């Protein structure tokens, strides 16, 4: 005779075995586990935050996970994007992460979206999910995900991390604020520091991603009281300090969740934020006069021809110390307009002009001062500053910024130049 140990409509024996330690936790129980198993969560971004979120939510038994990412795995991702493997290099991050989590828990249904989450794709993707986790890395996507969540009435678990710090909060939950209630307008493009510029540590995104997974579990298991809505958790990894601060509540004047919303459907977020749905690939617009720009190919040609030149690398010292073009001088952009920097550049120019007069090997009498950075953004700012600051001696040299910078050098001239 078959003995019935398990009540009907509850968990199956393999689920009890797998989730046992979790389901005996106070405030989870069978009903909490059932809610997790029946839930669907969309994770936007399968990078530093998305990996730990997906690993913990799949192991916790969330029934369906959606993974959105347009990018492919690079070796430089692996120090922090722990859901990918070396063998996944070059393949879609969504697919790579799906493979890892399916090996962790084959009971979870996984949907992959190898595409950019945009105003055109968002609504169709989001409609099948209960909760959205923002694990992206750019402002345009943050506004897009927020508005899509408000318009469809879904809670949004938001996280961000940079250098040694990270933040987590929950938007659009239980009448709490949305992202726009806190940040009604996007920050100026130049004030946004990117992971690719500022760096980030693996354990920091690990902590923040784990906290995002935990908030998601709390929402799904209806542990309303503790949910980080209307509060922002800030983690300073260097000082080992967690702080939770109150943030503004829902604003009745908010453009999307307020009483008279002006945003009633998705808009063009790249235009609204004046930036792309990507962080590292961010397009660099030409903001300076054509006469101040040189391509990496032209620069390469000119140094091969032994053209008299001075090369100034305007990246932070920490990056310059890792790798740089031969014979370059490092003056970080933050310091370039300082008196000492200008004097130093004037001195270098003077030396070059004098050397040139006595050196028959140099082919062209005119000195060129080249400015370079990682991808041609900061060197544009530098060229504008120096054009102004060196006004008096401008007839002695040509001033040019190298379009596409060192990434361009790696791509078009020498791929052995390390990129990171
Ligand atoms: N709108 C979007 N649609 C789909 N994926 C997105 C979108 N915005 C960001 N992402 C993805 O979110 C992830 C963010 O993760 P993270 O910042 O750790 O990675 P990253 O872009 O690989 O960083 P880097 O290349 O600078 O090392 C990336 O994989 C990125 O492709
Ligand atoms: Zn709002």
TrEMBL record:
The active site is at 195 (glycyl thioester intermediate), 373 (cysteine persulfide intermediate). Pathway: tRNA modification; 5-methoxycarbonylmethyl-2-thiouridine-tRNA biosynthesis. Its EC number is 2.7.7.-, 2.8.1.-. CDD domains: ThiF_MoeB_HesA_family (cd00757). Keywords: ATP-binding, Cytoplasm, Metal-binding, Molybdenum cofactor biosynthesis, Multifunctional enzyme, Nucleotide-binding, Transferase, tRNA processing, Zinc. Binds 1 zinc ion per subunit. GO terms for biological process: Mo-molybdopterin cofactor biosynthetic process; tRNA wobble position uridine thiolation. ATP binds at residues 48, 69, 76-80, 93, 137-138. This is Adenylyltransferase and sulfurtransferase MOCS3 homolog. Plays a central role in 2-thiolation of mcm(5)S(2)U at tRNA wobble positions of cytosolic tRNA(Lys), tRNA(Glu) and tRNA(Gln). Acts by mediating the C-terminal thiocarboxylation of the sulfur carrier URM1. Its N-terminus first activates URM1 as acyl-adenylate (-COAMP), then the persulfide sulfur on the catalytic cysteine is transferred to URM1 to form thiocarboxylation (-COSH) of its C-terminus. The reaction probably involves hydrogen sulfide that is generated from the persulfide intermediate and that acts as nucleophile towards URM1. Subsequently, a transient disulfide bond is formed. Its cofactor is Zn(2+). GO terms for cellular component: cytosol. NCBIfam families: PRK05690.1. The lineage of its organism: Eukaryota, Amoebozoa, Evosea, Eumycetozoa, Dictyostelia. Zn(2+) binds at residues 178, 181, 254, 257. It comes from Dictyostelium firmibasis. Coiled coil: none annotated. It is an enzyme of class 2 (transferase).
């Amino acid at each position: 005779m078959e003995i019935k140990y398990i009540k009907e409509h509850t968990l199956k024996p393999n689920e009890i075995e797998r989730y046992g330690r979790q389901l005996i936790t106070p405030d989870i129980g069978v009903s909490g586990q059932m809610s997790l198993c029946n839930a669907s969560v969309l994770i936007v971004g399968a990078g530093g935050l998305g990996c730990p979120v997906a690993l913990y939510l799949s192991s916790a038994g969330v029934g369906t996970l959606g993974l959105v990412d347009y990018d492919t795995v690079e070796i430089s991702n692996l120090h922090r994007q722990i859901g990918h493997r070396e063998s996944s290099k070059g393949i879609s991050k969504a697919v790579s992460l799906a493979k890892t989590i399916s090996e962790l828990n084959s009971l979870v249904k996984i949907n992959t979206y190898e595409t950019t989450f945009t105003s055109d794709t968002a609504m169709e993707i989001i409609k099948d999910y209960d909760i959205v986790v923002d694990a992206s890395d750019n402002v345009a996507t943050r506004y897009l995900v927020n508005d899509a969540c408000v318009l469809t009435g879904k809670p949004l678990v938001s996280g961000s991390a940079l250098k040694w710090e990270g933040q987590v909060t929950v938007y659009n939950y239980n009448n709490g604020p949305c992202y726009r209630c806190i940040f009604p307008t996007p920050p100026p493009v130049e004030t946004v520091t990117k992971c690719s510029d500022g760096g980030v540590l693996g354990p920091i995104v690990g902590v923040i991603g784990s906290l995002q997974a935990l908030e998601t579990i709390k929402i799904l298991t209806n542990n309303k009281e503790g949910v980080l809505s209307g509060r922002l958790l800030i983690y300073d990894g260097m000082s080992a300090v967690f702080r939770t601060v109150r943030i503004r509540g829902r604003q009745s004047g908010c453009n999307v969740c307020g009483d008279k919303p002006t945003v009633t459907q998705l808009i063009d977020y790249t235009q609204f934020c004046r930036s792309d749905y990507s962080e590292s690939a961010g397009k660099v617009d030409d903001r300076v006069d054509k006469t101040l720009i040189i391509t990496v190919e032209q620069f390469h040609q000119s140094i091969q021809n032994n053209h008299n030149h001075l090369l100034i690398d305007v990246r932070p010292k920490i990056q310059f110390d890792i790798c740089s073009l031969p014979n370059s001088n490092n003056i970080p952009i933050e310091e370039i307009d300082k008196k000492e920097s200008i004097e130093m550049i004037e001195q270098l120019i003077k030396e070059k002009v004098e050397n040139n007069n006595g050196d028959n090997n140099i082919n062209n009498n005119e000195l060129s001062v080249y400015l370079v950075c990682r991808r041609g953004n900061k060197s544009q700012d530098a060229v504008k500053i120096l054009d102004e600051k060196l006004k008096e001696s401008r007839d002695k040299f040509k001033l040019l910024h190298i379009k596409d910078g060192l990434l361009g050098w790696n791509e078009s001239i020498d791929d052995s130049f390390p990129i990171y």
